Please model this.
Amino acid sequence: MTGTSHRRRPTASYAGPVSTDLDTLVPSWLTLPDLAERIGSDISRVRGMVRDRDVVGVKRGERTTFQVPEAFLVATETGRETVIPTLRGTVILLGDQGLDDEGILAWLFTVDDELGGTPIDALRAGRRAAVRRVAQAIG
Model:
């Protein structure tokens, strides 16, 4: 099987003290076409970002479309938007800890006392090391 990637697919959900309703935790969502438009890319590149774990999302809404949290985007120095650069490593770490995509989203958007807010807010503020230290403790 040359050239085939075998990724471990997480199966556990985040069992911490969170609401199971992601709509309660995540204030706003983007469809993949919306994400592509916001970052100035095409839909095939955005689908690749999902495949490569640069972003995670869930199927939701009336038409059960795949969506990602809008909070994954940050402004660049040029004024454009991009996905938080340290998100991918954190997502991979959480997956290695056994969380599925819904669990990863729940963890990222649940207030953590050690971080003094949500992990996603800490990542947006550039506090990657603190977020990953807390993430390693959940396993």
Notes: The first helix runs from residue 22 to 25. The chain has one domain: 23-136. Strands lie at 29-31, 58-60, 65-69, 73-75, 81-83.
